[in-house]
């Protein structure tokens, strides 16, 4: 059994992420670090206080002290851990539905636990080999409010004042506690929606996918703002609309920042996830840099391995000069700075990023069938595409990079009973052909392998 997925532990509170599990994680983390201070934060979900208290109890029982920050966004938890803690834990299920919750663990640098650290926590939990503190060595709890300090840290890093008008959508999540204030401190005029905390997420689904936030395009046009920014439930993800109300594809935003960092550094390495566009490779290569891909949820492992100057996966951006964690607040600050320094609207700036037709679609697949379906899909695609294949990446599912720059990715979801199919073509026609082939192979494999 494996507890940690692509982004910590996540799942339903009645069957997976229970108070009992939170207690065990607290005990295991306290055992792992042996002693010291652990920084704790939580999102606005209805179950977060329950899990937070169980986690804290586990930590105190091992002799660890706890710095309790309360309701905060995940980037702030990472930053605070880097400043104050020997480890950190965020109680959040990020963009998952309100029925779920999760536990995300950070090391003393504010970096999400590396794979080997997660494996060690799991070993401690499954073996129940916990450290137990004596009655007079039980840890203590200290409550702190660091929101103003965090905002000031971001402001100092971005170093920019603006007069742009920004529409902000907080998804009823904890980003609403920081983003409007940060933007106003920068000088922006801010119009906020879904900015009151509510763990039921009444405004919209918390994941900032286009289909969940498409209404922002109309609002941008009606209000005449310079851009719109949307976050998810714990504010590690960010999505953007330009001044015309056009959604900026997540890969385009990654390519834009990658291009800036490589140009600024006159080269360097960019790390991105397995499911991102060739447009990133194109702009980085043209600027004199190099791209490496890693599995989803392993950007921090990639930065460590390749010494990257920038890392991102869809909606998530790491700016190593500020910190080694995903930080949407730094991203929004730097994006506004870019728009002002370019002295032209965002719609004009992103025209410099090449666009290729891309499609993503999921095939429902029971978890127990995923290995066999993946085996069939890889073999079939390899056979059908053999004359076109340039390289095959197998770090997360299987991705076929083709000689013309098109690519096909088939990947089992780490959190849901689905197989994800992603295809990008150099032309619309090529994209359609490849998608029909890949989606058809996966769908047929699932149906043929289902028990009768």
UniProtKB/TrEMBL annotation:
Residues 362-436 form the Alpha-D-phosphohexomutase C-terminal domain. Keywords: Isomerase, Magnesium, Metal-binding, Phosphoprotein. One of its GO terms (biological process) is carbohydrate metabolic process. One of its GO terms (molecular function) is magnesium ion binding. Residues 2-128, 149-245, 250-354 form the Alpha-D-phosphohexomutase alpha/beta/alpha domain. InterPro entries: A-D-PHexomutase_a/b/a-I, A-D-PHexomutase_a/b/a-I/II/III, A-D-PHexomutase_a/b/a-II, A-D-PHexomutase_a/b/a-III, A-D-PHexomutase_C, A-D-PHexomutase_C_sf, A-D-PHexomutase_CS, Alpha-D-phosphohexomutase_SF. It comes from the Archaea. This is Phosphomannomutase. The lineage of its organism: Archaea, Methanobacteriati, Methanobacteriota, Thermococci, Thermococcales.
